[in-house]
Write a structure and sequence with these properties.
mainly alpha, two-stranded parallel ribbon, Nop56/Nop58, snoRNA binding
């Protein structure tokens, strides 16, 4: 199962990739905690992390009505992190 912040994105992922997605308040809480601790978990400079957040926000805003592109963008941004952050290597992912 895949945790997603947005139920619409979860539906698009399920249709396209046949992943069961969960989008509820518990997922929102978990994502909030991860975001608040991201700089210590990822061991990335706060300035670089802020730039990544802005880049993702702009990219998402541009493609709000194109869920397929959002999925590709997410994989594009997460895959390098997955290779560099030991914690993320433990999480199963089809990238």
């Amino acid at each position: 199962k895949l945790l997603v912040a947005d139920s619409t994105l979860g539906k698009a992922i399920k249709e396209k990739f046949s992943f069961d997605c969960i989008a509820n308040s518990s997922v929102q809480d978990l994502m909030r905690v991860i975001r608040s601790q991201a700089d210590s978990l990822l061991q990335i400079d706060e300035k670089e992390l802020a730039a990544m957040r802005i880049g993702l926000a702009h990219r998402y805003e541009k493609n709000i009505d194109k869920p397929d592109r959002d999925c590709r963008d997410l994989v594009f941004y997460v895959k390098p992190l997955r290779n560099s952050v030991p914690l993320l290597k433990k999480i199963p992912c089809k990238c």
